[in-house]
Amino acid sequence: MFKKFYAKFIHFIKDEYKFIIFLAIFYIIFAWPVNYYIITGGGISDIDSRIEVKDSYSSKGSFNISYVTELKGTVMSYLISYVVPDWKRVSMDDYKYDEKESYQDLQFRSNLELDAANAKAIRIAYTLADKKYSITNTKIYVTGTFSEYKTKLKIRDEILSINGNSYATVLEYKNYLQTLDSKDLVLVKVLRNKKEKVIECKLYEVEGSKILGVTLQTVNAYEASPDIEIKFKDSESGPSGGLITTLDIYNKLTKKDLTKSLKIAGTGTIEEDGSIGEIGEVKYKLLGAVRNKADVFLVPKGNNYNTCIQLKKERNLKIKIIGVSHIEEAIKKLENLKS
Asked: Cis (ω within 30 of 0) for the bond into 239?
């Protein structure tokens, strides 16, 4: 009886062995990760459902954030990108400040950039609409480290103080660092994994400026009147929706409808002074807007705008492209736009 059981067991193992090999090969081909993002196209998303302003004015048209569809690369998607014309490979290293950064570090920075962009959009839109707002909370995080600077600070650290001094903005911290001797060691109190910790850091001097050798990001929380709530999906990140987010908030706060019954798409960061910053992969975002029948595409002036105009001519795209360099310019051009 034992011999029969043993024979069946050996036969099972042999078959299972082949099956396991097959599964391993299948996994490597289809799911094994590579150090690339694969951009597979672009699209637009109506931002109206993401922004709720109490007693807001309605719009006949819509504001739409332009985005790219970006996959975390696998062996299979990487190989397919050589066959499909509009699939693009982008190395994760292009997004990294330091080669030791992980995919999770990149996501943290990108998510924080979205939070910061939304906060700036609220402040700028409420200011332009002459509505009240106030800062209720400020947090400053470490979002990047560099291999050339030795630091014990880590990505995700929240900066609480430097040498016992707390400030509300990254600029204030930078100004304080300039008052110190470059030979001094700096005591940085951080919140790491929900615990406060004091880190001893070296101060570096680069081109006459004293730095800690990390990048910092400020995120403000606002209390506004009328009340506002912004809800983005967990899968959405990055600062490139800043322009459209600001316009949509402003449009909800003012009587004059900037959309004029049009489907308006666009992309561009919003900076502290209201200027519009350039973004990556603008080609895919324009094509996504055209594919989704947008009437207007707002884009930062400069290289982004020139790329879009050239692509429009090459492919005979039926869409109006408007280049803007400042939020007030964008508002003015939309006010003068004919529906």
From this structure: no
Whether 233 and 326 map to the same domain: the answer is yes
Return all residues near 284 (Cβ < 8 A) that are at least 6 apart: 39, 41, 42, 68, 69, 86, 88
pLDDT in tens, 5-42: 556 555 555 556 666 665 667 677 677 788 887 887 88
Contact call for residues 201 and 153 (beta carbons, < 8 A): yes
How far is it, in rounded angstroms, from Cα 308 to Cα 315? 11
| pTM of the full structure | 0.82
**Single-letter code of the amino acid located at 202:** K
Instruction: Say if 4 falls within a structural domain.
Output: no
Indicate whether 123 and 245 sit together in one domain.
yes
Handedness of CA 158, 164, 168, 171 (dihedral sign): negative
Residue from 81, 87, 122, 99 nearest 223 by CA: 122
Residue among 55, 35, 21, 39 nearest 253 (CA)? 55
Residues 279, 283, 286, 290: what is their CA dihedral angle, to the nearest 10 degrees? Answer: -170
Amino acid (one-letter) located at 114: L
Helix H or strand E segment including 270: strand 269-270
Q: How far apart are CA 135 and CA 173, in angstroms?
A: 18
